[in-house]
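User: quick one, sequence for these tokens?
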């Protein structure tokens, strides 16, 4: 059974950067596409970015396009989200998913000035 564990969240200044990581175990990592979602209390989980199995194709929500970069390392079974030019509205709990496995704990990102 797959397990996805997010890390790398924390406090970041407005305009700053953070890099989130997602470690995947229990499956053949290279067979799956992965996505990042985020959620703030009282709102629905929101799609952020997705990446193909090879890593050659990525997709982004309009709200993060040009600021965030999703990547993957098929040798280390990890997915990353490089978050640049952070805005207050990026504050959320971030989750990585294969759209099959139950949601994990996520990692909190808080942007401050």
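Assistant:
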């Amino acid at each position: 059974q797959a397990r996805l564990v997010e890390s790398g969240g924390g406090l970041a200044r407005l305009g700053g950067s953070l890099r989130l990581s997602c470690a995947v175990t229990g499956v053949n990592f290279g067979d799956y596409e992965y996505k990042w979602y985020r959620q703030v209390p009282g709102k629905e989980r929101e799609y952020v970015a997705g990446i193909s199995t090879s890593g050659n194709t990525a997709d982004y929500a309009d709200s993060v396009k040009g600021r965030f970069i999703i990547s993957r390392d098929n040798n280390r079974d990890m997915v990353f989200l490089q978050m640049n030019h952070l805005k207050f509205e990026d504050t959320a709990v971030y989750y990585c998913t294969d759209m099959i496995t139950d949601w994990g704990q996520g990692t909190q990102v808080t942007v401050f000035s």
